[in-house]
Amino acid sequence: MALSVVILAAGKGTRMKSSLPKVLHKIGGVPMVQRIIDTVKTLGADSIHLVYGHGAEQLQATVKEDNLNWCLQQEQLGTGHAVQQAAPHIQDDDDVLILVGDAPLIRVETLTALREVKAHCDLALLTVVLDDPTGMGRIVRQSDNITAIVEHKDATEAQRQIKEINTGMMMMRGADLKRWLEALQNNNAQGEYYLTDVIGMAAAEGKCIQSAQVETPVEVEGINNRVQLAKLERALQRRQAQDLMTQGVTLADPARFDLRGTLTTGTDVIIDINVIVEGTVTLGDNVVIGANCILRNCAIGDNTVIEANSIIEDAQVSEDCTVGPYARLRPGSVMHKQAKVGNFVEMKKAVLGEGAKANHLTYLGDAEVGANANIGAGTITCNYDGVNKSKTQIGEAAFIGSNSSLVAPVSIGKGATVGAGSVITNAVDDNALAVGRGKQRNIANWPRPTKKS
Ligand code: UD1
Ligand code: CA
Predict the structure, then answer these.
(1) Residue 169 shares a structural domain with residue 260
(2) Cα–Cα distances in angstroms (integers) from residue 337 to residues 236, 260, 341, 356, in the given order
(3) 256 and 187 within one domain
(4) Cβ atoms of 342 and 327 closer than 8 Å
(5) Rounded to whole angstroms, how far apart are CA atoms 398 and 412?
(6) Same domain membership, residue 279 and residue 153
(7) Is the beta carbon of 79 within 6 A of some atom in ligand 1?
(8) Which domain does 395 fall in, by range?
(9) Domain identity same for 256 and 178
(10) Dist. CA 101 → ligand 2 center (Å)
(11) Is 452 within a domain?
(12) 253 lies in a domain?
């Protein structure tokens, strides 16, 4: 049977007090609705229907999915009305899974359990027992059989004592759903078409209704404001940190590690405190990441050490390298194996050959540095003339003396040496020495100026 998933995301999210539609707020670096779509794809949905209303332009600009069926709900007349917008696209013999767009921590395992319940009944409900169920739809049972969901605002005092609540996530056959949706009325406390009324209809038809329970309530918790956003962010970070540690990563403190994307690791990786990982990051075996580093879309090879306070973005670092402390690798930086970058070194679109070193206070932009070259402290590749960017080429085993400016476009030959303090504007041949600085002049017994009275 085909699995058709409906995600309800038309609500405005007024309490976020934001110009961004609620479901585009990020959790773990990913817009919450995208996270749900990703989960549903892992589950193996055949079609995904996204019911949207507010912020259509922003939503469509952000959520780029080929096979997503966008269903506009012009006016938000209730969750039942929302599902009605997707109904024409649902086949009678589809299995329909309904999810809410603002509960991003739902796990594939939980949805699989719900699916298994649905496999041997007509309607499967995902429920959870809460200490404080205020505001939620209550699951009404008669001698264990589910007979209805009653919204908090419509519930009697006795029903409000029920602590088992509707998560908003449920599953049923397409034909049943469509028949029940047609019969929905809005004569309730909120004047809305409640999706939850289909449960009463199913019970009246004598259908088999069963529930799957969520073990960790946070999975089905919705986000309505920024306090809840922060709470679920922490919960997700805890979960990700647990997963990483289970996979064999050492985290100095799982509470001080943030993953906003996807991290792939080799064995025996060690990550110190306050590290932020964003986008897609790969760490090889035995990689050590020092405190306060930010890694964004990069790959770090085996045995490489990133020292504290370094920032690496859209860069490739090979095996056995050392980076930092306080290094910044900007987009297009490549370090071949055993290369070294020390403190206050910035790289941008620059390649450091095997075993090459830039140990201190250097800017390498639009540069190619050959194997085993040594870049002295304070070296600057002057890659920008105010209008255009130009390249600097440094040959294998070249030695650039401290505090030199290499004015691009320029090339330094293999084995060449640049004297400290040089400003190099012309190409330097292989094995040559280039000195480009004012000649030193000594004046003997020079009288220092004296203070005027
Ligand atoms: C709903 C359930 C309630 C459940 C709770 C769980 C109904 C009537 N009530 O209540 O039983 O305990 O969720 O959080 O279903 N939405 C639309 N269009 C609309 C209305 C809502 O797309 O016209 C979307 C919202 O964007 C949201 C989801 O549906 O993602 C739930 O809507 P919400 O207003 O939060 O429902 P609740 O009143 O909390
Ligand atoms: Ca809600």
Answers:
(1) no
(2) 35, 27, 12, 9
(3) no
(4) yes
(5) 7
(6) no
(7) yes
(8) 240-434
(9) no
(10) 10
(11) no
(12) yes
Mean pLDDT of 384-390: 96
Length of the chain: 453
Is the beta carbon of 149 within 6 A of some atom in ligand 1? yes
Q: What is the pLDDT of residues 156-191, one digit of tens each?
A: 999 999 999 999 999 999 999 999 999 999 999 999
Residue 65 belongs to domain with CATH number: 3.90.550.10
79: enclosing H helix or E strand: helix 79-86
If asked whether residues 194 and 273 sit together in one domain, one would say no
- pLDDT tens-digit map of 365-375: 999 999 999 99
245 and 295 share a domain?
A: yes
| Separation of CA 41 and ligand 1 centre (Å) | 22
Chain mean pLDDT for the chain: 97
Distance of alpha carbon 340 from alpha carbon 363, whole angstroms: 14
Mind listing the pLDDT tens digit for each residue in 219-239? 999 999 999 999 999 999 999
Contact 377, 390 (CB under 8 A): no
Ligand 1 close to Cβ of residue 78 (< 6 A): yes
Whether 9 is in the pocket of ligand 1, judged by its Cβ within 6 Å, is: yes
Indicate which residue's Cα is closest to atom 37 of ligand 1.
Answer: 136
- Decide: 76 in ligand 1 pocket, CB within 6 A: yes
364 C-alpha to center of ligand 2: Å?
52
Nearest CA to 123 among 70, 166, 77?
A: 166
Instruction: Quote the percentage of the chain above a pLDDT of 90.
Output: 98
Please identify every residue annotated as catalytic: 360
* pLDDT given for residue 453 in this prediction: 87
Residue with tokens 């906003």: 260
Residue type, 10: A
Question: Does residue 230 lie within any of the structural domains?
Answer: no
- Give the Cα separation of 65 and 52 in Å (integer): 14
* Span from the CA of 250 to the centroid of ligand 1 (angstroms): 40
Distances from the Cα of 288 to the Cα of 250, 325, 346, 378, angstroms: 10, 12, 20, 27
Is the same domain home to 207 and 285?
A: no
* Mean pLDDT along residues 12-26: 94
450, pLDDT greater than 90? yes
CATH number, domain with residue 336: 2.160.10.10
Do 380 and 365 form a contact (C-beta atoms < 8 A)? no
Q: Is the CB of 217 inside a 6 Å radius of any atom of ligand 1?
A: no
Q: How many domains are contained in the chain?
A: 2
Ligand nearest to the CA of 22: 1
Cα separation of 247 and 226, whole Å? 31
For ligand 1, pick from 74, 79, 146 the residue to mutate: most ligand atoms within 8 Å of CB: 79
Query: What number is the average pLDDT over the span 298-319?
Result: 99
Q: Whose Cα sits closest to atom 32 in ligand 1?
A: 79
Q: Are residues 298 and 169 in the same domain?
A: no
Q: Is residue 447 part of a domain?
A: no
CA dist list (Å): 219 to 105, 130, 230: 5, 13, 14
